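Review session, final week

We close the course with one last complete record, chosen because it touches almost every idea we covered. It is histidine kinase, a protein from Marinobacterium mangrovicola with 420 residues. Go through it on your own first, then we will talk.
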Amino acid sequence: MPGYHETLLQLTYTRVLILFGLSTLVLAAIYVVGAGVDVWLICATLGMMALINLFTYARLHSNWPVTESELFSQLCADAILYGALIYQTGGATNPFIFLLLVPLLISAATLSWRFTWLMAVIVVLFYSSLLRYYLPVLPPQTEHHFSLGALFDLHIIGMWMNFLLTVLLITWFLVRMQHSMRQQERRLNRERERRIRGQQMVSLATFAAGTAHELGTPLSTMSVILKDMALTHKDDPETAEDIALLQQQVSACSDRLQTMARSARDADVTHEKPMKVLLDELLDEWQIIRPQAQYQRRDTQPGNSPLVATSPQLKQALTNLLNNAADASEEPLDIELDWDKSNVWLRIHDQGPGLPLSSSANLGRPFVTTKGKGLGIGLFLTATTLAQHEGEVRLYDHPKGGTLTEVRLPTAGSGHKEAE
């Protein structure tokens, strides 16, 4: 599972630090203190630790999942090697015997209570055995003669160094583990939100499909009746004009249903287009729908704009934002386009009343509206569509009044991903 994979990866980093520290201490004990140790045996133990760490690091790049039992076996191997190294360097008289606590602390932080208690039994047995069985570092026959006070001072200094090393290792490992756990929790929260949003989208799509199917019959009936009424009242200009307007509206509704069906069929079809071209097309189509709406458009940078991945759903989402801004104020909209190598930003500033505090925290959720009318699903569908394009929409109260709607879209090929 991903959690144990990350823990085992952190364990390989911890082993590198421990190997470096132990190698330095062994060299100091041999050449500074003059300890009588079997250098080849110690080097073999440290080499075994290095080989296990290299094998573990290579194994982590495979597709095999890291189980709890595997992580426990890795910690047992560490405890055995630490015990072997301490056995060769004085046993329980070695102030660095507390290195045996490192596997136990990692077990307590990551594994279940059964494995933690088992690791506790293992390290206690090792410590108890090392009280009696060990290779002395300074045997009585050595040519180096240390007084009892000097040996005690040396032991105290070693314990201080051991305490400092243990504190650094434990703090570093636990901080890294907490960071990894927070990242995993954020990923789980995002996936949960996406799943909930996906379920809501499926519900809305099912409802929309059923509604579109049901509306087809009454619209066809209305079209037939309006044709008959046009023939009946062709001598009445005012009535004929009203009937022609109704026919136009019915045709618009039928065309809208057909467009919705084509969009659903081509939902996965996307292509790349310069953002300036996309915005020009979008504004031209929007002016046909909203001829009374006015706007002022400006680009913050000269030259060609980067490519973005576009689709019918994206154009509809941006149209929803333009409609919301136009509904909020009769004043001309201020539309600004900006970009860099990784993202493009579309900012729409209206002169409306701004965002109400009561609903600002829930904007983007289904059935939440600030208009006092409507179903409250437009901004939700817009936010969902932009998220599918790895973009986002945010709404702010503008310092000069009204609402600022900011859309961010990644440029094509930028590989932009949401920040952790």
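Two points worth writing down before the exam:
The beta strands are 271-274, 295-299, 307-310, 333-339, 343-350, 392-397, 403-410.
The first helix runs from residue 2 to 33.
Good luck, everyone.
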